[in-house]
């Protein structure tokens, strides 16, 4: 009466899903809206940086050779023939022992090859002319930011697939990207299943719980770079489920259902997948939580049947859906950022399955530490709020002790891992 | 001719600014829009979790006492009198050697005190009735998730000022927050100054550079939780600057200008602050980059005069503006997350001032490592794109060597530090 399912290892499950992950579409947005998106093409320099030799300070541009004999005892005097601000260009020719008053960012006058900062000069007027004197010598190139010393025209500065942070935003502006080609946000359709689910605004009733998964997954979808579309609750009826899923499938890039994937009497999803003609990639994984996670594909479109239990649902999203989304966003590092941390407390429970323990990673004196948040029962929603990492404990291991170095996958790191 | 300014230590400058930081306003948003915002009140449980004793598995609810004598040799048979799914409540009284077929999440029937998972039962029919048998005994409480074992009604689960991540979003749904009281996003007005600045869509011209700071700060403002309002470029004219700033000041919570704060001939901001009647908190800091960062206040409203140089502008925002914003968002940890990391390469430059070096922090085998990104000239914008941290090197130190443990302030960590 109970269907028997064969669990597959979690890494194998991820690989099966990722075979169907492919790059998504691109769209063009104004620079003002580019922050937080992902580059759909390499960001290239359209000019040298600096674009011309320029002054990094407020001071005087001079011909260095004129300063050769300057000393404390024998200051050398320069006639100040012109003043240029940033954005201005010198108009006069600079002759021997002449100088141009120059502001930060302004282009070095043609005949000059050094800048003397205000602070080391003595400026004065005489007979209606302005002079300044210096008490030390300068070499050609002193205090000049040279054209192209930061970046050469044509250089690739940021690669396709990169998250657009404030620094990338500044680069886009610098190189004239008034419009930016970014990855289109994948559309994720979401259905919740389960007649025990109440809407958030409904009062509690016997046997019922509020629907938290739909809201959680919408937030996870946004965090991973996608646009969630919540289609509401599926009825506990196979025909209605089928009709609802078939109706929306073409509108979304990915479809997620939560609940209904167990082998309980009211778990209709296996039937739905069959009726849709979808290929079930797996329906049981050797992991906790989330062992009943089911993934199917139809014409290359992925259908994720995540567990109805909040923690399993959360982990299922991060493990299976996120890397697909990030691949659509052109990332070459679509997986959660994987590293290690020192366990802060004993974790004695042995388990035959790979465990993903909701945890908090912190840093101290150059070391990363990890501690599980809350008890690790799979029906506990509170621990998700405090988790910034999943601690990954391989199956078949005995418990772990305080001080052990364990694997952690960071949930809030934009960087990601390549595998 | 050149104004003399006295630099103050960076931590003192931050403290001077933070004296004017205060909690902002709150607003109510639908739960769907709460992700990414900051809680304006504590999140409390409005009911026990679980709200009733419930089954964590698909199986049979029984009276544990009835199973006492079950063994491999002597299976004990139960009559299955009813089936309940999640959200349903048992309607029949359960007598001796009777059982209820129960799905994950369903409420435990009144008379039952244990759940037997499908996997360890043998289910069959006889004479039109359904039976199951078990070959081991169960104790009262076996396989039951008890009411309130996760969370008690009234408990504070997440504190005011917390970033609403997907886990917090799930909690809000669970506890019926259909509308969520969140911190209103502070409004940050932004002006760029400098006649050398071209708009992003303009072609390059001699002596000119494109305006990248305005876009960068808008992105930094969003990242820190605020709403940027870009007012465009200020003219290089004191009267026009004054008029423009006076006109918008009442529309924003904070005003940022970039550029115009040096002691160059075209740096009008000191004059503007004076005309506005603003109190200048400081106009020179013993730090690199960003030494000319100026902050003023008028009637408690902060005016930040950030440097026009992109790196100095970036660092100035993160050091001085961000903690003010986070305080307005009710955070008790408004500063960048501060920790330490091992230096991956020599950094030999000595410097009398505290340096904030744009850096990349990575993790390996439980350790944090840091390396500077790009050369650290203050006019280099490219390094900002790759930085996820500021390496903080105290003033008065000689160079640092590979392997040294140095301070790092993380730019992309939601958690923050209390000081």
Automatic annotation (TrEMBL), chains A, B:
One cellular-component annotation, GO: cytosol
Cofactors, names only: Mg(2+)
InterPro entries according to UniProt: MoaB/Mog-like_dom_sf (IPR036425), MoaB/Mog_dom (IPR001453), MoeA-like (IPR038987), MoeA_C_domain_IV (IPR005111), MoeA_C_domain_IV_sf (IPR036688), MoeA_linker/N (IPR005110), MoeA_linker/N_sf (IPR036135)
Keyword terms: Magnesium, Metal-binding, Molybdenum, Molybdenum cofactor biosynthesis, Transferase
Any single GO BP term: Mo-molybdopterin cofactor biosynthetic process
GO MF, any single term: metal ion binding
UniProt KW Transport keyword: no
Catalysed reactions, semicolon-separated: adenylyl-molybdopterin + molybdate = Mo-molybdopterin + AMP + H(+)
Annotated pathway: Cofactor biosynthesis; molybdopterin biosynthesis
Entry's EC annotation: 2.10.1.1
MoaB/Mog domain ranges (all copies): 189-327
Function: Catalyzes the insertion of molybdate into adenylated molybdopterin with the concomitant release of AMP.
Family (UniProt): Belongs to the MoeA family.
PANTHER family, per database record: GEPHYRIN (PTHR10192:SF5), MOLYBDOPTERIN BIOSYNTHESIS PROTEIN (PTHR10192)
Protein name (Swiss-Prot/TrEMBL): Molybdopterin molybdenumtransferase
Organism in which the protein naturally occurs: Anoxybacteroides tepidamans
């Amino acid at each position: 009466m109970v269907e028997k399912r064969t669990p597959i290892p979690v890494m194998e499950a991820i690989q099966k899903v990722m075979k169907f992950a492919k790059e998504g579409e691109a769209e063009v947005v104004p620079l003002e809206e580019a922050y937080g998106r992902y580059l759909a093409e390499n960001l290239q320099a359209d000019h040298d940086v600096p674009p011309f030799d320029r002054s990094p300070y407020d001071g005087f541009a001079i011909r260095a050779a004129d300063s050769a004999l300057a000393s404390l005892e024998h200051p050398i005097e320069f006639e100040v023939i012109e003043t240029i601000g940033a954005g201005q260009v010198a108009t006069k020719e600079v002759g021997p022992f002449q100088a141009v008053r120059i502001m930060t960012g302004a282009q070095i006058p043609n005949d000059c090859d050094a800048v003397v900062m205000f602070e080391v000069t003595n400026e004065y007027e005489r007979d209606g002319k302005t002079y300044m004197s210096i008490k030390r010598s300068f070499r050609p190139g002193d205090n000049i930011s040279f054209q192209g010393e930061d970046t050469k025209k044509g250089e690739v500065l940021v690669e396709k697939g990169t998250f657009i942070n404030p620094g990338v935003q500044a680069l886009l502006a610098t190189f004239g990207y008034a419009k930016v080609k970014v990855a289109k946000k994948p559309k994720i359709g979401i259905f919740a299943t389960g007649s025990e689910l109440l809407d958030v605004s409904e009062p509690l009733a016997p046997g019922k719980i509020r629907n938290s998964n739909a809201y959680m997954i919408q937030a996870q979808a946004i965090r991973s770079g996608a646009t969630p579309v919540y289609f509401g609750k599926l009825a506990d009826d196979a025909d209605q489920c089928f009709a609802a899923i078939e109706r929306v499938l073409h509108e979304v890039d990915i479809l997620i259902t939560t609940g209904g994937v167990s082998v309980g009497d009211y778990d209709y999803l296996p039937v739905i997948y069959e009726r849709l003609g979808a290929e079930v990639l797996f329906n049981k994984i050797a992991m906790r939580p989330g062992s009943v996670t089911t993934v199917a594909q139809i014409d290359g479109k992925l259908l994720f049947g995540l567990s109805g239990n909040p923690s399993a649902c959360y982990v299922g999203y991060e493990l299976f859906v996120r890397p697909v989304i990030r691949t659509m966003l052109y990332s070459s590092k679509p997986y959660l950022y994987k590293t290690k941390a020192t366990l802060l407390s004993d974790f004695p429970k042995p388990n035959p399955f790979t465990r993903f323990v909701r945890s908090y990673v912190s840093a101290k004196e150059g070391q990363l530490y990890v501690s599980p948040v809350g008890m690790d029962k799979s029906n506990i929603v509170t621990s998700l709020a405090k988790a910034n990492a999943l601690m990954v404990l391989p199956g078949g291991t005995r418990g772990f002790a305080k001080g052990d170095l364990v694997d952690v996958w960071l949930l809030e790191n934009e960087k990601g891992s390549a595998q």
